[in-house]
Design a protein that fits this description.
The protein has 163 residues and is of the alpha+beta class. Helices cover 25% and strands 6% of the residues.
Length: 163
């Protein structure tokens, strides 16, 4: 379900040049990840013709199009089940924080289904709570009569007395 906002954002993103780190095309050891050019005589920093564009305020996306999930909804971090109650299913999607454990994650996903809120990263193995199997009551059986064990010490004393 692509919204008009997603299409508009995609159109704006197409106008922004690919911003690359200086000399990343020349050296394999220098990755493309953006780093600001800082040298005094740096041609890229000065914006000299023939060098790639640098990051500037003019490329910023409008506020109503920022922080959108690719589905077109705004993402909201969720840590507890109570956080879901504040969300509107028509404009927001829930993103469960990575620190939330399995038990709470299952509870959040279940509550989100009830409220019809979409969860972007459920990562939950749907473990239903299995009721514990009740063991049948143990019937009392007649225990076999215990035969008295001879006392070892007394037998040893008797043997010692015999010459």
């Amino acid at each position: 379900m692509k919204t008009p906002q997603v299409a508009e954002r995609k159109k704006l993103k197409a106008r922004i040049p690919k911003l690359v780190r200086q000399e990343s095309w020349r050296y394999e050891r220098v990755k493309e990840a953006w780093r600001r050019p800082r040298g005094v005589t740096n041609k890229m920093r000065r914006g000299q013709q023939g060098w790639p564009k640098t990051v500037s305020a003019g490329y910023k996306t409008p506020n109503d199009l920022r922080h959108l999930h690719p589905s077109g909804f705004k993402e909201v971090m969720v840590n507890r089940v109570e956080d879901l109650e504040k969300l509107d299913a028509k404009t927001y999607v829930a993103k469960i924080s990575h620190t939330v454990g399995e038990k709470k994650r299952v509870a959040i996903v279940n509550r989100a289904e009830e409220l019809q809120i979409r969860v972007v990263n459920p990562r939950v193995t749907r473990r239903e709570e299995v009721p514990e199997a009740k063991e049948p009551p143990i019937e009392e059986r007649e225990a076999p009569e215990e035969q008295p064990q001879p006392d070892v010490k007394q037998e040893q004393l008797k043997e010692e007395e015999k010459p």
